[in-house]
Design brief:
The chain is an alpha+beta fold. Helices cover 22% and strands 37% of the residues.
Length: 301
């Protein structure tokens, strides 16, 4: 285990277990890496498992850009019950037997929740309303509304379904689904909205994030594995995997290291580009703007 001192420099791809917050994982990583400079990209609720991208030292500056990438989730939606939290951890607020729900109706409503949609996040989300976390407002008994916001659901597919009986005796229908979506999409809200559209209510009973950008759960490490050996993806490899690559000659590399703008590479990336020096050193993230490469985060110099 690494002791107190200068931490490694890169990303740790964690397979988060159930029952721990994202902040709890960050606290564990601070101890393992021996540094306070640790952050995460994209919060996972305690109930959720799967890919949580942790940045250590300079790599924390990549996290805000990684949060903008697409994500993939495996989830189970229970139709027939609504809960106050839109997931299984909240109190059931309404029960309506789902025996009359057909697969055709499910597919029709899922199609309406696919593509560019307006979504109202769950009130127990970490979203800030007037500078205050929504879930704090709920705990304090506040009555408030969260405005709908645009998000993109690239795909929303059902790959399994089964009838079940809830604890209160309600006949429910459990759907196993895969969702690929943009950052800022709430899977609990999809479950809630699907159930509402079908007239029986719905909530999430399981959630696992299997991908964040290029980082998949197959390459993630459990906390137990990281306790045995802290596995860090070096910052250069992390940047090359997540962003289009731009290789510079020595002269342009020196200019960029000082924050100077260069002629844009014309990659038409639509987002950050990772710039590398001739020796493979990761120099900066840049964005193409008016024919120039504008540095948005410089990692050398």
């Amino acid at each position: 285990m690494k002791r107190k001192g200068t931490g490694p420099d890169g990303l740790v791809i964690v397979d988060k277990p159930e029952g721990i917050t994202s902040h709890g994982v960050v606290a564990r990583m601070r101890r393992l890496a021996g540094t306070r400079k640790v952050g995460h990209a994209g919060t996972l609720d305690p109930m959720a498992t799967g890919v949580l991208v942790i940045g250590v030292e300079r790599a924390t500056r990549l996290l805000g850009h990684l949060m903008l990438t697409a994500k993939t989730y495996e989830a189970t939606i229970r139709l027939g019950q609504s809960t106050i939290t839109d997931d299984r951890e909240g109190e059931v607020t309404a029960s309506t037997p789902a025996t009359g729900v057909t697969r055709e109706a499910v597919d029709t409503e899922i199609a309406r929740l696919t593509g560019e949609i307006m979504q109202v996040p769950s009130k127990v989300s970490a979203i800030k309303i007037d500078g205050k976390r929504s879930y704090h407002r709920v705990r304090e008994g506040e009555d408030f509304e969260i405005p709908a916001r645009p998000t993109t659901v690239h795909s929303f597919t059902v790959h399994g379904q089964r009838a079940a009986t809830a604890e209160d005796g309600t006949a429910v229908l459990d759907l196993d689904v895969t969702v690929e979506c943009s950052s800022g999409t709430y899977i609990r809200a999809l479950a809630r909205d699907l159930g509402a559209a079908l007239g029986v209510g719905g909530h999430l009973t399981a959630l696992r994030r299997t991908r964040v950008g290029p980082y998949e759960v197959a390459g993630a490490h459990t906390l137990e594995q990281l306790e045995e050996q802290l596995t860090v993806l070096p910052i250069a490899e992390a940047a090359a995997a997540a962003f289009p690559r731009w290789d510079l000659d020595e002269q342009d590399a020196r200019k960029l290291a000082t924050g100077a703008r260069l002629k844009a590479p014309g990659l038409d990336a639509g987002g950050p580009i990772a710039a590398f020096g001739p020796d493979g050193t990761f120099l900066a993230l840049v964005e193409e703007q008016d024919g120039q490469a504008r540095p948005v985060a410089v990692f050398v110099g």
